[in-house]
Amino acid sequence: MKKARDFLAWHLFFFIQVLKYMVFEWEKDYNNNKQPRVIIPVVFYHGADHWKIPRSFAEQFDVDDEVKPFLLDYRYVLFDTNPWDFRDESNKELKENVFLFTSMVLMKAAYKNDTEAIQEIFNFWYDKGFIENVDIVLFFLGYISHTHDITRDKLKKMLDKSKIDGGEQNKNKTQHISYCLIFIGLYFQFSSSDMNPISIFDVFETA
């Protein structure tokens, strides 16, 4: 029973918090003598379980149908990564934004320890030439290291499988991969020490 009450309390907290955000922006418009802006709340959810909070604020109130038209109400747009199939052809346009697509896939995979999805992202980076963006690749590798139970050696092997053949034409790409592998070693070496992420990158810059 307590768990059910806590769950309902979280529902109400969520709606009140979103409403506060909207009221805050409308107050700014009012203070600046502007028309209130249109606000459409958007929720991006990538938790382990499916999203269970109702889509309507008015659904929080247990009242007769005759009263409901007088209640304050708003809805929100929801994107739940759980049912999302990132391999579907409908994502073709989304894949043109490599950073956004990568972020969404890695967040979806974070609670499932989905190493297959990570391997597909590495291959995707190669296909898009994204592997040359060293700083961004390092950012994503850090996220993967924090969210997955995966060893350094396995991560290195997965990177090695990402279609980088080491040929003359791909010399720059293999060099970037080598930098990434150096960083992985540095990350695991210092992750348990007092060094913060910034100092880790400082070490990488001097490697």
Description:
The protein is mainly alpha-helical and 207 residues long. The chain has 2 domains: 2-80, no CATH class; 89-205, no CATH class. It contains 7 helices and 2 strands. The protein has helices spanning 2-31, 98-110, 115-128, 134-147, 152-160, 171-190, 197-205; strands spanning 42-45, 77-80. The chain is elongated, with a radius of gyration of 23 Å. The termini are far apart.
List the defining traits of the structure above.
single chain, 207 residues, mainly alpha, two-stranded parallel ribbon, 7 helices, 2 strands, 53% helix, elongated, disordered C terminus
Topology diagram in text:
Layout: H1 2-31, E1 42-45, E2 77-80, H2 98-110, H3 115-128, H4 134-147, H5 152-160, H6 171-190, H7 197-205
Parallel strand pairs: 1-2
Strand order within the widest beta sheet = 1-2
Reading the helices and strands in chain order gives HEEHHHHHH
Mean pLDDT: 79
**Unreliable spans:** 165-171, 188-207
- Please summarize the sheet with the most strands: 2 strands, parallel
Q: Please give the domain count.
A: 2
Whole-angstrom Rg:
23 Å
What's the gist of this structure?
With 207 residues, the chain is mainly alpha-helical.
